[in-house]
Write a structure and sequence with these properties.
Blueprint lengths: L2 H16 L3 E4 L16 H6 L7 E5 L3 E5 L4 H8 L5 E4 L8 H8 L5 E4 L6 H14 L2 E3 L5 H4 L12 E2 L9 H14 L5 E3 L2 H7 L2 E2 L12 E4 L4 E5 L6 H9 L2 E5 L3 H6 L8
Parallel strand pairs: 1-5, 3-4, 5-6, 11-12
Antiparallel strand pairs: 1-2, 2-3, 7-9, 8-10, 10-11
Helix pairs in contact: 4-5
Length: 269
């Protein structure tokens, strides 16, 4: 068996343990980044396909990788002999993975996906597909953690300040602009997960993604404070003090979900 065969077999075992009929592995991270840190390269690890974009769907008797025309030749070569079927996006006879799931699942089936790497539009499309077939969508299933024994952790590169003259607008002024926009839209708090936006807004830079000066994190901005959620140890004491002077608290990356859950019911996010 190839490494892909072995990994797909392990995934199917994990699916059976979780009661899942189908599992989706998109090419995304919790920030919908174009370039993914190693931790979220699960589709590549499972399928052996090294292109930057593709969606893997696995069931008990099928494994398919959906890619667009940029990758057809590459995917055909890399998937040969793996048991993973090439599914060509934009070919009239090949449904997209969402339509395929709607047509190939039935009432009582459970479709699993790691909801942390799923954008809202994708979640809504999959919800419609599941409702169409009578299946259930389970978004709390990160099966990669079950089977990927040497999976990378969160990137640990240090975060540093981006200063004048390159940073031509101060962090406090940028936050003030965001808060003015929040008031205009009637928002009490604003949650930001896109890494380039966070780097720009806080005048910070990092090296968590190859060839991109960004760092993995989330930000929650309130009317008079902000919290930056990053992995522990990435921001040193001196930079923490500088951020605190601008009303920015640093918290652990994993606490972002709890911070959202703790918002008051009448707050607008």
């Amino acid at each position: 068996m190839s490494s892909t065969d072995t990994r797909i077999a392990q995934l199917r075992q994990a699916m059976r343990r979780r009661g899942l009929s189908a599992y989706i592995v998109p090419s995304s991270d919790p920030h919908l980044s174009e370039y993914l840190p190693a931790r979220w390269q699960g589709r590549r690890w499972l399928s052996g396909f090294t292109g930057s974009v593709g969606t893997l769907v696995v069931t008990a008797d099928f494994a398919g990788l959906w890619v667009d025309s940029r990758y057809w030749v590459q995917a055909e070569a890399q998937l040969a002999g793996t048991g993973v079927q090439l599914m060509k996006i934009a070919v009239a006879t090949t449904p997209g993975h969402v339509d395929w799931l709607a047509a190939n699942t039935r009432a009582g089936d459970v479709i699993g996906v790691d909801g942390q790497v799923l954008g809202l539009a994708a979640f809504r499309a999959l919800s419609v597909a599941a409702a169409t077939s009578g299946a259930t969508l389970e978004i709390r299933a990160d099966l990669l953690d079950d089977i990927w024994t040497d999976r990378a952790g969160l990137p640990q590169a240090a975060i540093y300040e981006h200063v004048a003259p390159q940073a031509c607008v101060a962090r406090a002024d940028k936050l003030a602009q965001v808060r003015a926009a929040m008031r205009a839209h009637g928002a009490d708090v604003h949650f930001v997960s896109t890494l380039d936006d966070i780097a720009w807004l806080f005048n910070l830079r990092g090296a968590d993604v190859d060839y991109n000066p960004v760092f993995v994190g989330h930000a929650l901005i309130g009317p008079d404070h902000a919290t930056l959620f990053v992995a522990d140890g990435k921001i040193d004491a001196a930079l923490r003090a500088t951020l605190a002077a601008d009303g920015v608290e640093v918290a652990d990356y994993a606490q972002a979900a709890d911070a959202l859950a703790s918002l008051e019911l009448d707050q607008k996010l």
